[in-house]
Give the backbone structure.
Amino acid sequence: MRPQPRRALRIALAAALVAAPLTVAATSAAQAAPSAATSARIAGVGLDDPHKKDIAMQLVSSAENSSLDWKAQYKYIEDIKDGRGYTAGIIGFCSGTGDMLELVQHYTDLKPGNILAKYLPALKKVNGSDSHAGLGSAFEKDWATAAKDTVFQQAQNDERDRVYFNPAVNQAKADGLRALGQFAYYDAIVMHGPGNSSDSFGGIRAAAMKKAKTPAQGGDEATYLKAFLDARKVVMKKESAHSDTSRVDTEQLVFLNAGNFDLNPPLKWKVYGDSYAINS
């Protein structure tokens, strides 16, 4: 049976975000600046280029939503029965793992008295659980209403960048990886969460570095990326929701095997057997 598209199922997020989004050491590493030599080697357009970033969002959305229209996901909200409560928005913010609470708090900082602000006490209470207490259908309706607000859309973009995109891209650049590797890191941190546990992004990276050197360490980029993707698949297969590894096998490995380290269109890939293309 074809797996249901998963919305950012972050294995370690309950621990990683409820306790602390990143350890101090992990935060420093994730925000490390690449050396001058590394910067010269990865001088091509990075994933933080607006067009490349849009490509990254489309790639993630193909796996998470079976759609390339990632901007249609601001309004998305449902309980996918993964033990993390509600999953919602462009990156799968979860009521049970802390990042939805941080998102609504940020929205409220930007726009006090917004339609979701009244749910902050409930979001604090359900954090760390799959409970809907104080939320329910009224919250779902108000989320959809808030999604029409450009301030809420910006809040989602901000939190995506703060917690996931920027740390992933900065770490990838420090490791000497071009746009494809930066995307591999981003897709991994979206699904598995930040942190250093064996099932988190940091743990996957550490496992890969035991097998191969990063380009910044003098290693071969393709060899290291293959090691990273292999390490990620090991973690994915530990949870039934991730048993289909096609977002690695028929997406990222396709680009890697083609030597498309700059993630340049045209791009053709499959997720869950569905075909997608970005032509320009």
Q: What stands out?
A: The longest strand covers residues 267-271.
